[in-house]
Structure formats: structure tokens, C-alpha cells
Amino acid sequence: MSTQTYRAWATVDTGAIRHNLDVIRRRVGDTRLMAVLKANAYGHGAVPMARLLVQQGVHALGVGDSGEALELREAGISAPILIVGGVIPGEMPRVVAADIEVNLHTVPMAEELNAEAERQGRTVRVHLKVDTGMGRLGMQPFEAVPFLHNLRRLKHLQLVGLCTHFSYPNERNPAFTTRQLETFNLAVEVARRLGYRDLTLHASSSLALFGRSDAYFNMVRTGIALWGHLPGGGAPWLARLKPALSLKTRILFIKEVPEGTPIGYNRTYYTPAPTRIATLPIGYDDGYRTALSNKAEMLVRGVRCPVVGRVSMDYTTLDLGPVPDARVGDEVTLLGGEGKAAITLDEVAGWAQCVPYEFLCGLGRRVVRVYA
Ligand SMILES: Cc1ncc(COP(=O)(O)O)c(C=O)c1O
Q: How far is the CA of 304 from the centre of ligand 1 (A)?
């Protein structure tokens, strides 16, 4: 269907994703890849992205919770799926039945999962997550060691992996990451001594991909780099990554206004001179946050125009002063390139005062995803 019928749409360039996958593969060599598809694949669409990446040979898929895991299974994705987050007891029956792998964070969680697997006459593949310094999920090393010693008594759990997550895995603070890595290596050593020899070991997310080759082990979990962005911000092209998602809308309405005209809720903007104001059918329900009000810029006919007035639920207003020939129906680029100009994710996240991930994950349901 032509984009003419859409109020707002995000185009996902699948060629860029294949390219980013190549860039990542060249870095990590034979190391297996887990594509992290949490939060609707960071707004890119979990099911289409899973299909694309599995077809491109990605080994496993990482998701945040059971709902995301089941969505992929129900779409017919048969690749290994790991819930990297936590699983609560009420979710266990469906997780076990759908053959989803689970990260273990606590002893009670392991026991309940084992009991559910026994009820269903199944075995669940589990990964032990060790909290080496992220302070969010996972067993502390002093808990992980006795747990590994006792794990074989939970007969319906099969330990297939050991993992950790870095809190800030880049060059700016190598000492802390090095300590996390040393702690993880100790846990790996304990597991080996206990006879667990074929474990999938994974610690690295996208940031470590570009700074810590000592953290690859035999699998890396990558999210943001697949979508063409560097996790710590900065120019993606420095790592040869190509941003895959662009966000567009279309001018719905234009009005000519004199100097001193108030625009939008709370009258946060008054036109300083006569101008033309465009109303765009995209607002905070679509993920275009109110923090972007009176700060962000968008491209019309390749020229930057300022967002003026407060972003509302369904609409945003733009000063067309820099583009006198703009017309109703013209495309407007909120994120991504247009000719030689571009609005980058870093810029949008800066204006919105959020991390780049947040802007992508926040794209709303009404924004139509188009795959190119
Ligand atoms: C446990 C875990 N692993 C990997 C990732 C992927 O991180 P990134 O998108 O920076 O590659 C995330 C993302 O939040 C995560 O929570």
C-alpha cells in the first residue's frame, strides 16, 4: 500500500539491517549472535525482524518477557528464544509449554520452574544469570556458586547457558567492566569444574561489541547495533552502521498567521513574525514526546523547520517559514535522511532528553511500519 494513506509511518530499511548484521559479524567472527528483540524490536516490529534475522542465520532471539516470547512462537518462529528478563510464576505454564528458554535469577524461581516443567513432563532449557555489577537481575556470585553445586537435583531444568550483563561496557570505564568480566569468568570456571562444558556463555551487548573483544565468549546479545545505532550515542557511521528506521508524516493543514499568534496548548509559543504554520498528524501517542515541543526540527523538502508550540496527543505544529513553497500533503521527516539532509536519532533523543533507545521503543501503535 502506498504511504499516501498513512498519517505517520516508520520505514524500516531491511537492507540496512542486513548490512549491520554483516558489520557485527565481521567484528565477532564465529561467535554466535542473539538478536535482542525486546520492546517490539526497539520499535522496528518484533515478528518481521525475527523472521528476517533468523533467515539471516542469527542463532537465537532475546526478549524481555513471556508476552514477547509467545508473540514470536505464535507467529511460527521456531528458533531458540530466551527471556532475558524475569519470569513470574503465573507465566511459567505457557513459557514451559512453548519451549522458551529462561534466564534464572533466584533459587525460588528455579524451583518453581522445575515444578512446572515436571507437571508438564518437560525439560526447560535455562541460563543462569550472574549479577556481576549491573545490580538489576541475576544471582550474586556468592549465591550462584552453591546454586550451581545443587542444580542437578532440579531434574526438569537443563542448564544450557551462563550469562551476565554489563552496566557500562565501554572504554570510558574499562576497570569496572574488567571486574565484572573477572567475576563472570570465575562463575564460568566453577560451572566447568562441575562438569558443565558445553554452555552458551554470553555477556556482551552492542556496546561491548565495539570496545571489549575479551567479552565475546561464544555468544553476543545485540540489539541497538542491529538497528544501526551505537549504544553510547555518537555517529553510527564511525562503526559503519546504517540507521534502519526513518519516521515520516505528511502536512495535514497549513495556516498563514500574523506576528503574535499563539500556537497550541498553554500558548507556549507566539509567532515572532508573520509565517505559515503546518499541522502534522503525529503526536505523543505516536511516540513524538512533549519534550520535543519548541525544540525539535523536522525536514520539509530537505530543509529544517522548527517544531513550535506544544506537541499534543495527535498533532504537532511546525513553522514552515524556512520553506515558503511547502504544500498540504508534503512529506515531513522527523527522523532519518531526506536527500543530503538528515535528522539523527542522537539529535531527536537530545531534544527529547531521553536515551536513543527510549525514542525508538516509544513509537506508538498508530505509526504504520513499512518494510523496504
Ligand atoms: C540483558 C540484555 N542483553 C542485551 C541487551 C541488548 O543491548 P543493546 O541494545 O545495547 O545491544 C539488552 C538491552 O537492553 C539487555 O537488557
A: 33
User: Same domain, yes or no, for 195 and 316?
Assistant: no
The CA-based angle 351-329-292, given to 5 degrees, is 10
Q: Is residue 47 packed enough to be buried (19+ CB in 10 Å), middle (13-18) or exposed (0-12)?
A: middle
pTM equals 0.94
- If asked whether residues 289 and 166 sit together in one domain, one would say no
Report yes or no: 110 and 147 within 8 Å, Cβ to Cβ: yes
Q: Which three cell numbers stand for residue 180?
A: 565484572
pLDDT tens digits for range 152-190: 999 999 999 999 999 986 667 789 999 999 999 999 999
- The SS3 assignment for 193 reads helix
Contact 11, 338 (CB under 8 A): no
Q: Which atom of ligand 1 is nearest to the CA of 84?
A: 1
State the Cα torsion 188-189-194-198 to the nearest 10°: 50
Task: Give the domain extent around 28.
Answer: 14-233
Question: Residue 133 falls within a domain, yes or no?
Answer: yes
- Nearest C-alpha to atom 16 of ligand 1 is from which residue? 84
In a domain, 90, yes or no: yes
